[in-house]
Amino acid sequence: MMLQITLKRIIRSGYLNFRRNGWLSTATILVMVMALFVLGWLMMFSVVANTALSSLENKIDISVYFKNNSSESDISAVKNDLTVLPEVANVDFISAEESLESFRERHKENKLISDSLEELGGNPLSASLNIKAKDARNYAAISEFLSAKNYQAIDKINYFENQKVIERLSAVVNTSRIFGSVLVLFLGFIAVLVAFNTVRLAIYTMREEINIMRLVGATAWFIRGPFLFEGMLYGSIAALVTTFSFFPILWVVSSPLSSAISGINIFGYFKSNFFEFFAIMIFTGICLGVLSSFIAIRRYLRV
Hints:
Number of helices: 11
Largest sheet: 4 strands, antiparallel
Radius of gyration: 32 Å
Number of strands: 4
Shape: elongated
Order of helices and strands: HHEHEHHEHEHHHHH
Strand order of the largest sheet: 2-3-1-4
Distance between the termini: 25 Å
Structural class: alpha+beta
Oligomer: single chain
């Protein structure tokens, strides 16, 4: 019973401190919102980036182009060797005629290309094999197998071009994650600094009340408790504001993002993982608030 009364008094005192420094409390919450907002966007960016990379990897295959003078037996030999590889899911043969027909269909609206093909008279395209791996990570092994075999009939393997695209995208994603993490840490430090000064001012404002509490025998944690609760309030309110601000923002960006990257519904992902997202925000916010309060108490509150 006594513990319950003590907790109520600590909460009430902490809330009064929060209200008493209204503008400072608002400023502290806004800085925390900025830090949590960047953290939230970093989480959403990771989802989008991973989806984009997976989508790109799923679309990638290996196309092996043969020299124009390659015989059917040479092409069949390469196809047979590939078919028995455990990494290979499927190998499709595309003749030079099929390649030309497909090329014409893709560029039928472009009169310049159509006229150029007519002027050439013959078929400038060659036969090819389209290779699909069982797993995107197997393409490197398949490409190395083809290079090691050194088939004389092969003119070009396009995996290396696709590999560069994936590597560049991965580099951009990793750089963005590092930059985002540094920004989160920087804003987190600023949030702790602002909350620290707010609590320090609250300690200074309540110095007479603290002295009276000391004289009447109040315990150290009874005096410290309101300031810790004040820090928890900052973090909790900042987490609530941040989490619910994502609803309208993600709802707006979801549609154009889905058009740009197939297979992603960022708003749907946010709704389905709302409680996990909110738990991370509330945990991070409370940690920031309590940490700043604890540092201020240790530094300025002598009990």
